[in-house]
Fold this protein.
Amino acid sequence: MPELPEVETVRTVLKENLIGLYIKDISIYYEKMILCDTTYFKECIINKKITNILRKGKVLIFELEDIYLISHLRMEGKYFIKDLNDMVEKHEHIIFKLSNDKTLRYHDTRKFGVMCIKTKDDLYNTPPLSNVSFEPFDINSDYLYKTLQTKKAPIKTVLLDQSVMSGLGNIYVDEVLFLCKIHPLTKSCDITISNVEDIINKSIEVLNKAIEFKGTTIRSYTSSLGVSGNYQQFLNVHTKDMQKCNVCGSIIQKIKVGGRGTYICPICQKL
DNA sequence: AACGAAACCTGCGCGC
DNA sequence: TGCGCGCAGGTTTCGT
């Protein structure tokens, strides 16, 4: 489900509902998604206050006084806030009991999501966050240009690499490359400095507008926290195969890049 | 070292 | 109706 705008939407709603509450207990129904020892995991969290909720790229970070709970939603992770005695539904893998007699529930159909614990000192200089680079909002164009120069993989693949730049996923990268008129199979090292500036600017525009509209909802009935995004009305290419390009009227094509479904206008985006 | 493929999981829609 | 396949907003690991 989530790219940067969707995770940011989750962060905002969680902040509104959770700041200041204590975590009283935790039930873990799928241990594999906890990357550290589960006893240690519980020890670190129980009776801690949720003091802040942060985000870097697509990674959610719960600040619990002196310790940090990292949560990556991967493809389908979602959070819900429910009453204490509501039924435990299928795919609810972690349930946090809160001090206001509500529960925070982590729901993940495909079980790809992961959680781990970090101290303040380790938060940003150990994995996973040590592998998450700058977001488009604060990346330097010379740095990005130099990084792209060193890689021969398709530009789309490299932009999806969170250690190069963070925040873009399969939907927004297609939209950004369309707006920049760059074919996703263009070799990363062939991207010019002016392309890079365009990529950064269009990424900022797309992500900001997507945040404003609370993300994109496609092929997904249940949204996180009862919030469903509305950015899908602005998509130019993603999921639009066989439809007319908004700019030139030719037919949007679906191709495969790095194993990922990829939508392009074959006229606007020449190789 | 770098690239693509497979793996991790479940569910849905499609064609036969 | 049932089965097999391909696909899904992500990332890591395993081969060549």
Q: What stands out?
A: The radius of gyration of chain A is 20 Å.
